[in-house]
Write a structure and sequence with these properties.
Shape: globular
Structural class: alpha/beta
CATH class of the largest domain: Mainly Alpha
Strand order of the largest sheet: 3-1-2-4
Largest sheet: 4 strands, mixed
Number of helices: 15
CATH topology of the largest domain: Arc Repressor Mutant, subunit A
Order of helices and strands: HEEEHEHHHHHHHEEEHEHHEHHEH
Helix content: 40-55%
Radius of gyration: 21 Å
CATH architecture of the largest domain: Orthogonal Bundle
Strand content: 5-15%
């Protein structure tokens, strides 16, 4: 369904017109408020540059947006399923509660039925929805400079060790290991394909990954080990530049990335990453063709490994590499994202020439 959405300008026009034909098909996340809405929401309309459009409520939540309390997009997506509505109301009443399958059973629900219903209607399970909400609140609290205990309570964890463990699984290091005097600073960048974690110093971007990538914890931990001063929370100007360029990219306005990048890899990996950036927008290459362009025709497997070691998604476009038969191959951010990025760039190449 995500691939069938029209362009952002069409969706914005539908938002301004409160076009009911998009109800249940598209949602808008407003970066200035952190809220996501139905396109028919009666609230005052945001500026176009503050809007990101999504195909499902789950995608909105994964990108860090909270449901609007005026148009109730989650309730609308729940349809006529009374049990789904009941669970959404329960989550709204207890947003910091640690929901378990046992709680669903106690409410008279079959966990597998609920799992399928939420996955179908929201793009994520009920338990995933609850966990995303809790952990994101904790990250936001830490980013604001609040102590770990405040983040723990905000995220609804009774146990400090449980919060540290959950947070470490999300980003690779425990919250107490983030340092106030660190040279590398971590923050979130919202995108239409989900939230991204950015780590940068005052001069260069060192890491940019989708927050749900399984390899993210390992990459952050490796970066922290490499950097003697550790990692802290913050948003250098480099991250602001990256966020602005990504915003233009996803809005279909520009495909140029001038954010200075730090390459943490071998000389060969850095060579592959530079070659990736030279692939024209809207085009793709096979691993073999990329190896050939580097003058290393027998190194397609090594090129594939270097591609997978890339820690700066989108800006170093490893998504532009396909299998020899043209099929989508492994992508850390998920094959659905790889497909969407390729589609975005085909549209961009038509616009930018």
């Amino acid at each position: 369904m995500m691939f069938d959405l029209p362009d952002s300008k069409t969706l914005y026009d539908a938002l301004v017109a409160r076009d009911a034909s998009y109800d249940g098909r598209a949602y808008v996340g407003v970066s200035s408020t952190g809220i996501f809405c139905r396109l028919t929401c009666p609230a005052r309309k945001p500026k176009y540059e503050n809007c990101q459009f999504f195909a499902t409520p789950g995608a909105c939540i994964e990108a860090g947006f909270r449901a609007c309390k005026r148009c109730h997009p989650l309730n609308a997506a729940a349809g006529n399923d009374p049990l789904v509505r009941r669970l959404l109301e329960a989550l709204e009443a207890r947003p910091s509660y640690r929901w378990r399958e046992e709680d669903l059973v106690a409410m008279g629900a079959d966990p597998s039925t609920i799992r399928r219903a939420f996955k179908r209607q929201f793009g994520m399970t009920f338990l995933e929805m609850a966990r995303q909400r809790r952990l994101r609140e904790g990250f936001t609290t830490l980013s604001a400079g609040q102590p770990v205990i405040s983040a723990q309570l905000e995220a609804g964890f009774e146990s400090p060790s449980a919060f540290r463990a959950a947070f470490a699984r999300l980003v690779g290091i425990a919250p107490g290991q983030f340092r106030k005097d660190a040279q590398l600073l971590a923050d979130w960048i919202e995108t239409p394909l989900g939230a991204m974690v950015a780590v940068a110093c005052q001069h260069k971007l060192h890491l940019l990954e989708f927050a749900d990538r399984k390899a993210l914890p390992r990459e952050v931990a490796k970066l922290q080990k490499r950097q003697p001063g550790g990692i802290g929370f913050g948003r250098p100007e480099v991250v602001d530049q990256a966020a602005e360029e990504l915003g233009a990219y996803f809005a279909g306005r520009a495909a140029r990335f001038d954010t200075p990048l730090a390459y943490h890899g071998t000389a060969f990996e850095a060579e592959v990453w530079r070659a990736l950036r030279e692939i024209p927008v809207g085009q793709t290459r096979s691993y073999g063709a990329l190896a050939q362009s580097l003058g290393r025709p027998g190194s397609s497997r090594a090129v594939a490994r270097a591609n997978g070691a890339n820690q700066i998604a989108v800006m170093i476009p490893c998504h532009r590499v396909l299998g020899a038969d043209g099929a989508l191959t492994g992508y850390g951010g998920g094959l659905w994202r790889k497909q969407r990025l390729i589609e975005i760039e085909r549209d961009l190449s038509a616009v930018t020439g």
